[in-house]
């Protein structure tokens, strides 16, 4: 039986040691729970740290990477499954299909793109999987306050905003990702 799979979206470029360590803790915790990791299949920055730590803890890791990024993001050749897609769109589709829940950590525009696609997909009824955003040390405060402003201007309905579970720390994040307590 395939174990519960969490897809983690995060930076593929930061060198901030606190963020690298946060990503590693996420990988360790996924393994400790006997879950499986689905990630972007890169071996750099936070993305590499989460996969390496998950594997070190004994988790099965699935990396999904488009062929044109195999070199730039240093494909995670140690992944238990490394799936190489033709395009970025196929990557996202496959990551989403292979996951039971999504966790977004701090990241840049690639991470935001992945978060928004998964979040809007959930809000529009394309899937019922938990979509969790870890607002570590207020990293996403600016984005969230802008979204609140858009809600006040009636451009983001409450049910759309509520589809995203925003959490401040890892214990709350993992509680929100749990199959038993999963929303929807
Ligand atoms: P970043 O948050 O910009 O460091 O990117 C994190 C990850 O998102 C990297 O693996 C990028 O390759 C990936 N990424 C960037 N753009 C996209 C996109 N349009 N769709 C899916 N993933 C993307």
Q: Classify the oligomer.
A: single chain
Strand order of the largest sheet: 4-3-2-1-5-6-7
Helix and strand content put the structural class at alpha/beta
- Mind describing the biggest β-sheet? 7 strands, parallel
Q: In percent, how helical is the residue content?
A: 40-55%
Keywords: Cytokinin biosynthesis, Hydrolase
GO biological process, one term: cytokinin biosynthetic process
GO molecular function: cytokinin riboside 5'-monophosphate phosphoribohydrolase activity
Enzyme class: hydrolase
Describe this structure in words.
Keywords: Cytokinin biosynthesis, Hydrolase. Pfam families: Lysine_decarbox (PF03641). InterPro entries: LOG, LOG_fam. This protein is an alpha/beta fold. It has a single domain (5-176), classed as Rossmann fold (3-Layer(aba) Sandwich). 43% of the residues lie in helices and 17% in strands. The protein contains 7 helices and 7 strands, in the order E-H-E-H-E-E-H-E-H-E-H-H-E-H. Strands 4-3-2-1-5-6-7 form a 7-stranded parallel sheet, sandwiched between helices. Helix 1 (17-32) packs parallel to helix 2 (45-56). The longest helix has 16 residues, at 17-32. It is globular, with a radius of gyration of 15 Å. The model has no long low-confidence stretch (mean pLDDT 95). The structure holds adenosine monophosphate (AMP).
């Amino acid at each position: 039986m395939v174990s519960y799979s969490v897809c983690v979206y995060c930076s593929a470029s930061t060198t901030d040691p606190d963020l690298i360590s946060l990503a590693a803790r996420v990988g360790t915790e996924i393994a400790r729970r006997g879950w499986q990791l689905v990630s972007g299949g890169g071996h750099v920055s936070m993305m590499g740290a989460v996969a390496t730590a998950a594997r070190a803890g004994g988790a099965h890791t699935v990396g999904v990477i488009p062929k044109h990024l195999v070199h730039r993001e240093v494909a995670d050749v140690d992944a238990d499954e490394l799936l190489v897609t033709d395009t970025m769109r196929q990557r996202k589709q496959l990551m989403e299909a292979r996951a039971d829940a999504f966790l977004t950590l701090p990241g840049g525009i690639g991470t935001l793109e992945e978060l928004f696609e998964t979040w809007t997909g959930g809000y529009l009824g394309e899937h019922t999987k938990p979509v969790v955003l870890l607002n570590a040390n207020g990293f996403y405060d600016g984005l969230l306050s802008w979204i609140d402003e858009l809600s006040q201007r009636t451009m983001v309905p409450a049910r759309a905003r509520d589809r995203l579970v925003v959490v401040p720390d890892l214990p709350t994040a993992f509680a929100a990702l749990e199959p038993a307590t999963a929303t929807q």
